[in-house]
Amino acid sequence: MSSQIVNQDWRNVVTQQNQQFFPSITFEESEEKNKWSFSMKLPGFSKDRLRINLNTRTRIIVVTGQKSDGLFNITRLNERVTIKEDCLLEGVQAKLSNDTLIVTFEKEKK
């Protein structure tokens, strides 16, 4: 009987926890450099666990990923950003540095 209680308690401890992560997002526009960018604070997310997809029809960029604390907790990211109409969709640059993802777009020349 006591082993049944131990096994039941252990299952409650080992249950995997999934959490949704909501990043801080900052937008920046540079008229001099003719660029528009956004940055996301992604503490603990590694480059190989992130995916960035751009839908050119809807002009929405989707950033997804996940991280684990090495035990039983998984944190998931699923963030959508609408791209401004005056941004070119070719030549998009993305860089992850110091836990910050920066995505930059060239703007149409006026």
TrEMBL record:
PROSITE patterns: SHSP. It holds the Pfam family HSP20. InterPro entries: A-crystallin/Hsp20_dom, HSP20-like_chaperone. Transmembrane segments: none annotated. Gene3D superfamilies: 2.60.40.790. Residues 16-110 form the SHSP domain. Coiled coil: none annotated. Belongs to the small heat shock protein (HSP20) family. This is SHSP domain-containing protein.
